[in-house]
Amino acid sequence: MKEYTYSEKKDTRSGFGAGLHELGKSNLEVVALCADLTGSLKMDAFKKDFPERFFQVGIAEANMMGLAAGMTIGGKIPFTGTFANFSTGRVYDQIRQSIAYSGKNVKICASHAGLTLGEDGATHQILEDIGMMRMLPHMTVINPCDYNQTKAATIAIAEYEGPVYLRFGRPSVPNFTPADQKFEIGKAVMLNEGTDVTIIATGHLVWKAILAGKMLADKGISAEIINIHTIKPLDNEAVLASVRKTKCVVTAEEHNRFGGLGDSVAQVLGTNFPAPQEYVATNDTFGESGTPEELMVKYGLTENDIVAAAERAISRKQ
Amino acid sequence: MNPHNKSIEELKDIASQVRRDIVRMVHAVNSGHPGGSLGCTDYFVSLYFKVMNYSTDFKMDGKGEDLFFLSNGHISPVWYSTLARAGFFDVKELATFRKIDSRLQGHPATEEGLEGIRVASGSLGQGLSVALGAAQTKKLNNDNSLVYVLMGDGEVEEGQVWEAAMYAAHHKIDNVIATIDRNGQQIDGSTNEVMSLGDLKAKFEAFGWHVLEANGNSFETLLPAFDEAKKSTGHGKPVMIMMDTEMGYGVDFMMGSHKWHGVAPNDEQLQIALQQLAVQVASDY
Ligand SMILES: Cc1ncc(C[n+]2csc(CCOP(=O)(O)OP(=O)(O)O)c2C)c(N)n1
Ligand SMILES: [Mg+2]
Fold first, then answer.
1. Where are the transmembrane segments (chain A) (predicted)?
2. Can you name the CATH fold of A9-174?
3. Max CA-CA distance within chain B?
4. Architecture of domain B8-276
5. Predicted ipTM?
6. Rounded CA gap, B262 and A82, in Å?
7. Tens of pLDDT along B109-125?
8. What ranges do the domains of chain B cover?
9. Best of B33, B74, B123, B126 to disrupt the A interface by mutation (most A CBs within 10 Å)?
10. CATH topology of domain A189-315
């Protein structure tokens, strides 16, 4: 079993900010738009060093999506920045018509996704965004797991032609993936090989899946741990190869059980290789105020929940 | 009838108490929005202790009562404190603000059944539409009480506000008194730096509204403005009070910039703030 360690906890949004700043230097076509959340999105460095390519749109997310779509005409690569709720639900039709259907090269960068936004509560804690975005034809959906991976993803999506939804979060989390990683859109990352159960996690739940893997090993259970940073297009081959071996799966995500990673995996398995699956996800509920840690416990998104789900999945194997 | 109907002197004391609650609430959880809350305290205290006709025996439908909607939901601390002080629920509950399992969510919500709240807010730009809908229902019900709604000035950058503004005039919704908290600040800086609002009074007038202006940090000008606003209802036009406030009003180091929009004071800053917010009969929760 591979050991994963980290020297530092960092927020994924800062990974986005750092990646965007690097793009400012390396890719002159990259422009950034923000809806009165420059500090929260960590876009200040880009704004400071590339002021002529930074556009403050005020509290007007719908306008921002339209502007971004327009800016692609003539070759710019717009990165929009606001909270995940205001990046998706608020502007779904603007994204749908002006960006996705029109095939525009806009990178929708969404911070403060999920419960770990914490005290602001349910109005801001979107748990449906992966579902909404993955339902859109042409849309790529990415939810990296730590600072380094978010930075790498930010840089990688500038090279990819087409609309992308990049989801990240507010709190500091273990920064354990390599700083020099190559980010391949649509390619699952094998974190640990195992034989008894596959655990497929995305975003903040990836580190918890690693912790769960250790706890399961202590119980004599061999878990295969896969980081799915790209939910769409899903790495079907990786999912199927693993579940063919382990014969059962747990999916883990900071998202409603409807429409997210779990459903994406279930769809692949159901049509190719039906196998017992357990979801670690929120259960068709809105969130609430609280500290990120308290909320993850209350809504069942901890390593303990992953362990329990793995045991249930294993017990259901034929 | 307003259940309290306080004098200006009493309102001032209540406002100080509400401001103490605000800084203590956000300090306790190291999160929340003191700036706009402090700036709008005199507005809330005026509404609930003088201006609005309502019962503290809360009913969602509010038939025969004036209704209030908070569109800029991030200033929930001032609303929660005012509601508790006005008698909707126990002031002790203010200590649960933003904590897990609380009815006092970071942004106002109805799911937990907190008395006084009729719709969730927090995602900006939606409250005026809701208030207009409620005002039209009052008309359909032959209920001639009024609907009040507060918005932030940064908030009016949202297009939906202007959709609602146009609708209100077209449908002659003259039983609504909307207010914009014109503090000139939002998250990334002043409204001038972030998104020039131009002449908001002229803009709303051009949209067919009857617009008054008032200093929102002086009961002496705010109360007459409410009187005039009430008199202006029923004349075929929606009514707006363009209310100038100072973000962070009452705590000197929180005033004069956008910096305290959404930052909580530390222990030392809390003590300084509380010293500046004296009350005759202190009754902190
Ligand atoms: C739709 C939406 N976009 C962005 C935000 C994030 N946000 C919360 S408050 C705020 C600034 C609001 O400015 P203003 O209305 O002037 O309130 P003030 O800062 O004066 O209290 C922003 C951008 C939000 N809550 N909703
Ligand atoms: Mg403002």
1. none
2. Rossmann fold (3.40.50)
3. 53
4. 3-Layer(aba) Sandwich (3.40)
5. 0.95
6. 16
7. 999 999 999 999 999 99
8. 8-276
9. B123
10. Rossmann fold (3.40.50)
